[in-house]
Amino acid sequence: MANLSGFNANDQKPMESFDPLPADKYKAVIVESEIKPNKKQNGTYLQIKFQIIEGQYQNRTLFARLNLDNPSDIATGIARSELAAICLAVDVPSPNDSAELHNIPLVLNVKCVTRKDNGEVANEIKGYESANQQTQPPAQSAPPVSQSNLATPPWAR
């Protein structure tokens, strides 16, 4: 048992449903990345957490898992190809650390797929594009730089 005294659900915003996103292209940034051991403990993968930064689904997250160290040459080849697409989309072709890819806008091509293990529909990232290649609305003048917006990431200003 856990003591929940002092908790009142009326004081909290209830968790929203996290149904899969509709298949589409979404502007996002990488907000986290880390190397994790794979399930069989015979390799590692780079887990990348993306956060959508605009539109109806702003702040929703998606993940990519890249098998960069795996006994399967096919798996590592796919992972390296996907990492190359991410690096080129954020214009960091030779990163020394995955953190160098964080907070730079890119566009995710998201599809809906049916999972083989449970039959549920899930999102899968099927491609990456530069956010600069997207059609942009006419530029508006940028707000003046102030102490308050220095703490805001550049893509959110």
UniProtKB/TrEMBL annotation:
Residues 130-148 have a biased composition (Low complexity). Pfam families: DUF669 (PF05037). InterPro entries: DUF669. Residues 125-157 are annotated as: Disordered. It comes from the Bacteria. This is DUF669 domain-containing protein. It comes from Gimesia fumaroli.
